[in-house]
Amino acid sequence: MKNIARSFFALWYLLGWVVHLVVVVRGPQFYAPFGDTALIPAFGDFWTAVVMPNITLFAVLLMVFELAVGMLLIGKGRQVKAGLAASLLFNLFLVQLGLTVPASDPVSDFVSNRLPNLVFIALQIPLLFQRFDRSIPEIVLSKLRGRARKHNAEISGSN
Hints:
elongated; mainly alpha
């Protein structure tokens, strides 16, 4: 189960950077509302004054970050732990930033802008206490080799 969860999170990041690439190419203004949902007003101001005028640079940095986290998560040992730590910190940042959903009251804001990232965090925390002795590619190759051996044995046995 731990490797299924790890694979899900890795794919989330490995596909996420592609989504951000499309957003940057098609319409980087997509990112503008993030400043509106920040819990810390000064961060909203920073978003508007610094991030948005340089959104292409920040989006490229985000893409590199997501690609790196995804690659770390499919690795093994300390690589996975580093990827999880980066993912957890990023999601904590997103709890503060919000997910751009306008909300008329604090409960709606929490449910729409904060809760999804808190759930994402909660699902990742148990992985910090697991060992990852093999990378995802090693696990997949091992399973494929096992199936190939079984298939070859069946063929040999039927002759």
